[in-house]
Design brief:
Length: 227
C-alpha cells in the first residue's frame, strides 16, 4: 500500500505500552491472583476481533517473517478463519432467540486456537500482539460486568479494580477512523470493521482493498502454498 502508516503505528504502540503498564501495575498489586506465565496459552484460544489499526499493524509485522514461517501461519489462519465464521454465523442465527448476554457467554466458552501459536504454545508475534491479548489475565469491565480469566485467583463476587475494555476499544476505533480519513477510503463500512487475527494476517491490505485504486476494494486474502 502506497501510504505511510508510521505515525498511526507509533500512536498505536504508545497505547499498547500504556496497556502493558496498566497490566504490570494490576499484576503487581494482585500478584497472587494473576496467574499469567510463559507457556500459558489459555487466552490464545479465545474468539475475539481486532480493530483496523491493530489488523494493519499485525499484518505489517507478519510480512516481516520469513516465507516458510508465513506459509505455516497462513495454513493455521485459514483453518481458524473458517471456524470463526461458523461460530459467528451460529451466534447471529441465535440473536433473535436468546438473550445477548447468554450468546456472549456461549461464544466465550468456544475454543479457537490462534494461528500465531507455535508448537510450544508460544506466540510468534508476541511483542506485537493485539491489546486484548495484553490485558487478558486481569479483571476487565465489559458491558458493565466484570470478567476475569478462569485460571486466575480472583474470587467471584469480590470487587477488584477492572480495566474498562470498551474505553480502550473506543480509542483504538478512533485511531482507526483517523487512519481511514487520512487514507481517503470511500468505504464507510471500514469505520466499524473488526476482524479476527486470522483474517488480519491473511488479508492483502492494498490500495485496491481500500478503494484507492482501480480494483473493487473487496477484501483480498492470500493462501498458503502447497508443499
Amino acid at each position: 500500500m502506497n501510504f505511510d502508516l508510521t505515525p498511526f503505528f507509533a500512536e498505536y504502540e504508545a497505547l499498547a505500552a500504556q496497556t502493558d503498564a496498566l497490566f504490570q501495575r494490576v499484576s503487581g498489586d494482585f500478584s497472587a491472583e494473576v496467574k499469567c506465565c510463559q507457556g500459558c496459552s489459555d487466552c490464545c484460544h479465545a474468539l475475539f476481533d481486532v480493530t483496523l489499526v491493530e489488523a494493519l499493524y499485525l499484518n505489517a509485522k507478519f510480512l516481516l517473517l520469513d516465507e516458510a514461517l508465513r506459509n505455516e501461519i497462513l495454513i493455521a489462519a485459514d483453518k481458524a478463519d473458517r471456524r470463526a465464521h461458523v461460530l459467528k454465523k451460529k451466534a447471529s442465527r441465535e440473536a433473535e432467540e436468546r438473550p445477548h448476554e447468554e450468546i456472549l457467554t456461549g461464544v466465550a466458552k468456544e475454543r479457537l486456537r490462534c494461528p500465531l501459536l507455535d508448537q510450544n504454545n508460544q506466540c510468534r508475534l508476541y511483542a506485537f500482539r493485539p491489546v486484548t491479548c495484553r490485558v487478558y489475565g486481569i479483571p476487565l469491565e465489559i458491558g458493565g460486568a466484570s470478567r476475569t480469566c478462569g485460571l486466575s485467583g480472583f474470587a467471584p463476587g469480590r470487587a477488584y479494580p477492572a480495566v474498562k475494555l470498551e474505553r480502550v476499544q473506543d480509542r483504538l476505533l478512533g485511531l482507526s477512523n483517523r487512519l481511514l480519513d487520512a487514507l481517503g477510503s470511500p468505504y464507510p463500512d471500514f469505520r466499524m470493521m473488526y476482524v479476527p487475527v486470522s483474517t488480519a494476517v491473511m488479508t492483502v491490505y492494498s490500495d485496491e482493498y481500500f478503494g484507492l485504486g482501480s480494483g473493487s476494494g473487496q477484501p483480498d486474502t492470500v493462501e498458503a502454498e502447497n508443499a
